[in-house]
């Protein structure tokens, strides 16, 4: 299991954990946890990748689900091309 240092007093796994404590945690790591072993560093990297993927999916959904509408042209220019 991944090991982390708790950066601020946090509620983790149904317990209050004090700042500075070292814990084993198999959930999704957040800003309050500092990875201290390879497993934790890999979990943080995977979590960050997942966050980027989520942002891309949200952009796609907000743009009406069409990847072509995610280009850098202002909305007014995109609309005029369709007319």
Description:
The chain is an alpha+beta fold. It has one domain. The protein is 40% helix and 22% strand. It is built from two helices and five strands; from the N terminus they run βββββαα. The strands form two sheets. The protein has a three-stranded antiparallel sheet, covered by helices on one side. A hairpin with a 2-residue loop joins β2 and β3. The longest helix is centred in the middle third of the chain and has 25 residues, at 38-62. The protein is elongated. The N and C termini lie far apart (57 Å).
How do you describe this structure in short?
The chain contains 2 helices and 5 strands, in the order βββββαα.
Low-confidence spans: none
Tell me the number of structural domains: 1
* Global structural class: alpha+beta
Terminus-to-terminus distance: 57 Å
Tally of strands: 5
Main beta sheet: strand number and arrangement? 3 strands, antiparallel
How would you sum up the global shape? elongated
Q: Kindly state the mean pLDDT as a whole number?
A: 82
Spatially, the strands of the biggest sheet line up as 4-1-5
Rg estimate, integer Å: 20 Å
Keywords:
83 residues, alpha+beta, 3-stranded antiparallel sheet, two-stranded antiparallel ribbon, 5 strands
Helix-strand layout with pairing:
Layout: E1 2-6, E2 10-12, E3 15-17, E4 22-25, E5 33-35, H1 38-62, H2 75-82
Antiparallel strand pairs: 1-4, 1-5, 2-3
